[in-house]
Amino acid sequence: MYIYRTITKSLIVIAVALMASIGPSHAQELKTLTVALTWIPNVQFAGLWIAMDQGYFKEEGLKIKFIRGGPKTAPAAVSVAAGKAQIGYTHWLPFVDAVLRGNKFKLIAATYPQSPQGVISLAKKPILTAKDLLGSGILTPAPNAKIAVDATLRINGLNLNWKQIPAGFSPEPLIAGQGDGFIGFATNQVITMEKLGLKRNKDFYFTSFYDMGFPQFADGIFVQEAFLKSDRRVVVGFLRALARGWEKNMKNPAFAADLTIKNPAKDLGLNPAQQRRQNEIQIARMPKNPRDVLVLDRATISGPMYKAALATGRKALPEPSTIMDFDIMGEIQSGLAKK
Questions:
Q1: 54-67 pLDDT, tens per residue?
Q2: CATH number, domain 117-208, options 3.40.190.10, 1.10.8.60, 3.20.20.150, 3.10.129.10
Q3: Does domain 31-114+216-338 have CATH number 3.90.79.10?
Q4: 30, 70, 241, 295 - which has most CB atoms within 10 Å?
């Protein structure tokens, strides 16, 4: 009996030791995914930061790294095409352009169904419709801003009678009277206007290009087609964790803003109040039902968004089903709903 007990105790000790040795190896076996962003780390990627912080990706067997976007950085499409990132963020027209250049990409999700880009104007000359753009001097901080104005006018059957005024990223030239409108974002320059003491819909107005008839999504998510085929389980795990991150963000906007400043953007000097306000605005622009978050709208993309791309002069667009996976997020959200 003594020998039996001794052997049993020895086996238990060995089993515990084996379990201890297995733990670290499993941690090392996490698959690393690199994500290329469209902009600098900030709260617009709230779902990503939360999923990283809360261990949602780890639960899917993933470890996430990211490549910053922003000024003087390579577009996410370049990073993904070169194999430096497996997941990339993109906007509608840049994604179309990347595909037309021959890249075998697949769009798998969209963070914001409606782009927050639009025109800021003052009360003395509100720009509320596409027709109001006619004859106006518009401050444009980036080259693609002109494309958006031209496309909006074309879609509405209007001539391109407007004046482009180069500008920086601050709307202050608009306040100084240097233009009739400023192309900015509801999640950025609109907040700047509010911080300057101006009241929206009284002192200034913001109208998105989407509301003026030029539909686009923002922060779509894409992968190489080959990667989706070979590692679909990994892609599903990434999106499932990300969806959980966005769902948590909707419940507590301040959490992601504070998390962003303390971790991924700790060296950027972002303003905490601005990040909280930005998160509130972007949450309001997302689907009301958390189960619809990240899901691609087949009808909108295949219809109005394709029409918008054609209005910009882009031609020979491939069939939507060849460059997008409309089913993957639906499958994931259905699974989450059952839990």
A1: 999 999 999 999 99
A2: 3.40.190.10
A3: no
A4: 241
